[in-house]
Each structure stands twice: as structure tokens, then as C-alpha cells.
UniProtKB/TrEMBL annotation:
Pfam families: Polyketide_cyc2. It comes from Kibdelosporangium persicum. This is Polyketide cyclase / dehydrase and lipid transport. InterPro entries: Polyketide_cyclase/dehydratase, START-like_dom_sf.
Length: 168
């Protein structure tokens, strides 16, 4: 059995946003969504849908046709502030279950933060979804203030918006 790195550090709780003890650099929220995992995963893995559920209101748009299918994929996203484009490097992927990416400026190495989604089917029509933002490896101090603005409440907002889309 593979241990979950954040669950084992106490950064996971069901239906409640939580923060880890790791200098509050790992924030996470989990909720059960009454929809099949495949439907929810499609909304996450296709970047064109992401601005619709982003609880941070950071994402303006993504070009269609960028559906993530494997580790190593890179998708681009235009951010709401100043129309800045980010490349998102997929570092974890299991179809229907888990996806994580590290954002970076185009052509640059990711500075060390990670967005992760994990889906655990409860039954055929309900899924436990965990959304995590991890900036433990972020080295650019100029990005710290913005990273700190990503709170468990904002992650929960993404989950709530995602739920509304998946249920509808």
C-alpha cells in the first residue's frame, strides 16, 4: 500500500479545509461530490474548463485541445492579471484518479509550487476529491506573498465550483 504523503503529515481532513504544519506551505481541502470520478476528472484534466471552477479567480482562459493524458504533458493557461501566460508541467498523472502540475513562465524551469487533484470514488455516483496547493519547494521569495494568498478556503471554493459543474 502506498502511503499518501500529505495524509500522513496531517494535512488532510474530509469535508473541511485544512493546513499542514509545514510552515503552512501545504494547504488542502477535500469534499465529496455527488458525481462520477470520470466526469469530475474530465473537468480538471481539460484546461479549457479550469477557469470555470478556479476558486482563486486566477485563470482567464486556456486554448481548447490541451487535454492532459500523461506525465510530461505541458498545457498553457492565460492568467487574469495582465494576461500573463503560464506553462503547466504535468508531474503526476493517473487517469481518473490523480493529476498534478507545476506552473512556470514560458520556457523557464518551474519555481517550485505544485497544484494537485486526487479523486477517490466513493461509489458509482459519488467521489471524494482533494485539492492541494504545495509550495514547500518554492525558492523565489518574490512569489511567497502570492503563494500565501492561496488558502484552504480558496481551494474549497474551487471544489465547490467544480461540484456545481460536475453535478449540472
Amino acid at each position: 500500500m502506498r502511503l499518501h504523503p500529505y495524509r500522513d503529515r496531517g494535512a488532510m481532513c474530509f469535508d473541511t479545509p485544512v493546513t499542514s504544519n509545514d510552515d503552512k506551505r501545504v494547504v488542502s481541502a477535500t469534499r465529496e461530490i455527488p458525481a462520477p470520478a470520470a466526469r469530475i476528472f474530465e473537468l480538471i484534466a481539460d484546461p479549457a474548463h479550469q477557469p470555470r471552477w478556479d476558486g482563486n479567480d486566477n485563470l482567464a482562459e486556456a486554448s481548447p485541445g490541451q487535454r492532459v493524458r500523461a506525465v510530461g504533458d505541458v498545457f498553457t493557461m492565460t492568467l487574469t492579471y495582465d494576461g500573463v501566460v503560464r506553462e503547466n508541467h504535468v508531474v503526476e498523472f493517473e487517469e481518473g484518479r490523480r493529476i498534478a502540475w507545476r506552473p512556470a513562465e514560458p520556457g523557464q524551469k518551474p519555481p517550485g509550487h505544485l497544484w494537485r487533484w486526487e479523486l477517490e470514488p466513493v461509489d458509482s455516483s459519488s467521489t471524494r476529491v482533494t485539492h492541494t496547493y504545495d509550495w514547500t519547494e518554492l525558492t523565489d521569495e518574490n512569489r511567497y506573498r502570492r503563494a500565501q494568498e492561496t488558502t484552504p478556503d480558496k481551494l474549497r471554493s474551487s471544489l465547490d465550483r467544480l461540484a456545481a459543474l460536475a453535478e449540472g
